[in-house]
Amino acid sequence: MTFAEMERGTKVLQDNMTVQGIMMHRLENNMDRLESDLAMLEGVVARNSEAIDRLASGQALMQASMHSLFEHMDRFIRGLESNGHGKQ
After folding, report:
1. pLDDT of amino acid 84
2. What three-state secondary structure class fits 61?
3. Cα(55)–Cα(79) distance, rounded to whole angstroms?
4. How far is CA 86 from CA 54, 75, 83, in A?
5. pLDDT at res. 82
6. Among 18, 32, 72, 88, whose CB has the most other CB atoms within 10 angstroms?
7. Can you give the pLDDT at residue 87?
8. Which residues of the chain have pLDDT under 70?
9. Which of left, alpha, beta for 86 (phi over 0: left; psi -120 to 50: alpha)?
């Protein structure tokens, strides 16, 4: 192997290492972006879960209130309550 062939081989290796370095840099940037996106998505999921819990609590409260209202209306219709607030 001549000196010129060794220099050419070294140049090819340097070029390959440069390309690999660029690719690694891009990969690191993409990983950083994906980690940031994942953190943001986790926050969104947590907020959505909290909102769903609040809606479920509100729905349970509304159902209980409606049930109570319908009981009062039924008693009023049947004449058990004169004004919807109990016997007077």
Report:
1. 52
2. helix
3. 36
4. 32, 9, 7
5. 64
6. 72
7. 54
8. 81-88
9. left
